[in-house]
Each structure stands twice: as C-alpha cells, then as structure tokens.
Design goal:
Length: 403
C-alpha cells in the first residue's frame, strides 16, 4: 500500500520557549483561555500575534469581549455582531422576526457594497453617500429612510458596544430623504383609502375567514398581523367587544364590534380548521391546513389573499392598496367622530402627549360612538327619500365622506 502524502505544512516552532501562543492547524497563533480557543494572527507574523494577545488578554481572561479599534474591525464582523445582538432581542420577545429580517437585508447590502473585509476605519462619507444611492435605486423613499437609519444603528452599535474607539462620520450625503420628498411622493401616489363601495364589494366577494378579517380591519382598525395573531380569548362575541394589544407595540386596545363583525367571526369560528400545533391552538383564524395566518413577511397569507381579492374585483389599480389600507380608511372615517383620544385607543397608537400620561381610561360609550361612526358610514343608506311638506322633495341625510 502506498503512503498517503499530506499537504498540510509543518507547524512552526515557537519563536522562544516562553512564547505564550501555540501554532494551530488553521495556520494561526492561538491560545486556549477559560476553555475557549482564541486566535491572534498568522504563523508568519508571530510578533503581531503576540501584540494582539497582549492587548486582549486581560479582557479574555476576565470573560469580556476585547475592545477593538476600527483598523482591526471589518464591516462584516461589525454587521454580524449587530445582528447577533438583535437576534438575542428576538429570542427574548423584545424584537419581531420581521424587523430582524429587515436589519439582515440592510446589513447584506451594506456588507456587499462596502466589502466583507473592508476595515471600518477605511469607511468614510463618500462610501455612505454611494451606499445611499444604492438604497434609492433599489427601494422607495420610505424603505431608503429606514435603511439609512438601520445603517446608522449598525455603526452606533459598534461604538456603544466597545468595538470601536470613536463614532463614525456619515457625512451630509447620508441624510434621510426630505419631508418635501415624502409629501411629493404621497401626492403622486394618491390617497391610500378604500371607498364605501369598494369595501362593500370586498365583503361580498370574500371567503368566510377573509370577510371576518376585512370587517375587523374597517371596524377596529386591525392590520395583517393583528388578524393573524388574534387569539380566541381576546374576543367577547356575546358582549360585542374585543380587547387585544397590538402585536407590533404591545399597546392595549379595546373596540366595540358591529353586529356584522360578530356574525362574521362566528361563521369563521364554525369553519375553523383544527390547528396542527399547540402553538396555534389559541388562534381565532387558522388556514385550511391548520397553520397560522401570521407570517413576518411582506407577502404574508393575509396580504396574499387580499391581493387576490383586489385583483379579481379590479380595485388594485392604485399603488399601495392592500389589507392595511383598511386601517387607513378606518382612521380617516373614525376621525369624523371628533374624539381623537378614543380613536387612538382603538387603534393602539402611542400618543406622545402628556394628556396620555394622565388619562387612565376611556369610557365604553366613547369607544362605541367611534365604532358606530364608521358603521354608519359603511352600512347606512346614503340618501334617504323623505316626504317634505311641499310635496315630496328628496332630502339628503347622512352624507358620506369623500372617501
């Protein structure tokens, strides 16, 4: 039998007997500290490896993460550390998986554009300006603004976590889009609202579960995640009320349910598929396969079904229309009740005003009045013929909003 030749190079000897590091098979100088291997540099530069070890040894022996300067920190290492910290928040329930995926997508573009092994110290305002241009070519204004903020958060994390000795300068070319730009884009897109006629058409064409969700959207301002995560325990159909904190913020909400919404939910429960897992056993809405309607993606099941419905009814011509448009419409019509605190409470909005600090509760009568305002707009006859003393002239009552 012939001898198998090994291609692995021979390990170098230590420069001197007291040299604290040993040559690892990965061709780096290494040392085991508190049960973990740490690497300090390539075989061919033992002096630099020793210098790095001496800089980091106190922190490593104390189980602390060594402080790095920007020269030794790569863009990829910084992005990974940021994502790992955010993943810990996801694991503890303090950050949504969808937000983490948005962070990940931003970091992927960031690393790809600047370079995996690019030193953070070498990144400057010109790099951020060109990165901003890449954002604008790939995404719209809102996502560009979000990506700019996420990128700033990555580098701010590096400084606050002790990975960088100094803050990073982004330069004037990495500013968020102006408010004027946002206003112009919104004007060009048109209003993100459904008309009364469109909502009634959606309700008439929707399947049992989607119909109930649409009613929750226009009755209580529910969004996609609200419907997908709604537990059975949050709905009191006998009393006609729903109490459910927003999954996105955890802010409490309470809303009076219309008779039409109560009936639709009862029908949805009657045809509810038994959940496949205990995790989904508490959900009010389940898919035909016994799964959840909630997925932390832009094309989640609720959004997909709504898109199909809009296309079939040919009311998908305006940009930005989707299930969440029901929440926009609810807010617009509900504001006509002139009770902004009650509308905010129903929608689960966090109000940055001292009045919200002192306001302990809002009466059910006020909440019901808001719900009735929207119901009257949607279901009440818009023109009522009444006989006048002069001989039957038509009189207009309950004029609709221009929605």
């Amino acid at each position: 039998m012939s001898e198998i030749n090994s291609t692995a190079p021979p390990k170098p000897a230590k420069p001197y007997p007291e040299f604290p590091l040993f040559p690892h098979a990965t061709r780096r100088w290494a040392k085991k500290i508190r049960g973990m291997l740490h690497y300090f540099g390539p075989w061919d530069d033992p002096d630099a490896a020793l210098e790095k070890y001496l800089e980091q040894k106190d922190a490593l022996h104390a189980s602390r993460k060594p402080r790095l300067d920007a020269d030794s920190l790569t863009v990829k290492a910084l992005a990974n550390d940021f994502l790992n910290r955010k993943q810990a928040l996801v694991d503890s329930g303090e950050l949504s998986p969808r937000t983490w995926r948005d962070y990940k997508e931003t970091c992927d573009v960031l690393v790809s554009h600047l370079g995996k092994q690019r030193s953070v110290a070498d990144v400057g305002p010109d790099d951020f300006a060109s990165l901003r241009t890449k954002f604008t070519k790939r995404w719209g204004l809102h996502r560009t603004a979000k990506n700019i903020q996420y990128t700033r958060s990555v580098f701010k994390h590096g400084y606050e976590a002790g990975l960088l000795d100094r803050p990073i300068r982004f330069g004037p070319g990495f500013a968020r889009p102006s408010k004027k730009k946002f206003r112009m884009e919104r004007a060009a897109q048109g209003t993100k609202l459904f008309s009364r006629k469109e909502i009634l058409a959606l309700l008439a064409a929707a399947g049992t579960q989607v119909k109930a969700m649409i009613l929750l959207g226009i009755n209580a301002g529910f969004g996609n995640a609200d419907c997908g995560n709604l537990p059975l325990s949050a709905v009191n159909l006998d009393a006609g009320w729903i109490d459910f904190p927003r999954p996105k913020t955890g802010i409490n909400r309470r809303c009076a349910l219309w008779p039409e919404t109560v009936q639709a939910i009862r029908e949805a429960i009657a045809m509810r598929t038994e959940p496949k897992t205990a995790k989904h056993s508490s959900l009010l809405f389940t898919t035909s396969h016994g799964g959840s309607w909630s997925k932390e993606t832009s094309d989640n099941p609720v959004a997909k079904e709504m898109a199909k419905l809009l296309k079939s009814l040919r009311i998908n011509g305006r940009k930005g229309l989707g299930f969440y448009t029901l929440r926009h419409t609810f807010r617009t019509v509900a504001d006509e009740s002139k009770d902004q605190p009650a509308v905010d409470f129903i929608m689960g909005h966090e109000v940055p005003h001292m009045s919200a600090v002192y306001r302990e509760t809002i009466s059910d009568a006020r909440l019901k009045a808001v719900a009735d305002q929207v119901r009257n707009w949607l279901f009440t006859n818009l023109i009522r013929e009444t006989s006048s003393p002069a001989g039957g002239v038509a009189q207009r009552e309950n004029e609709p909003l221009a929605v």
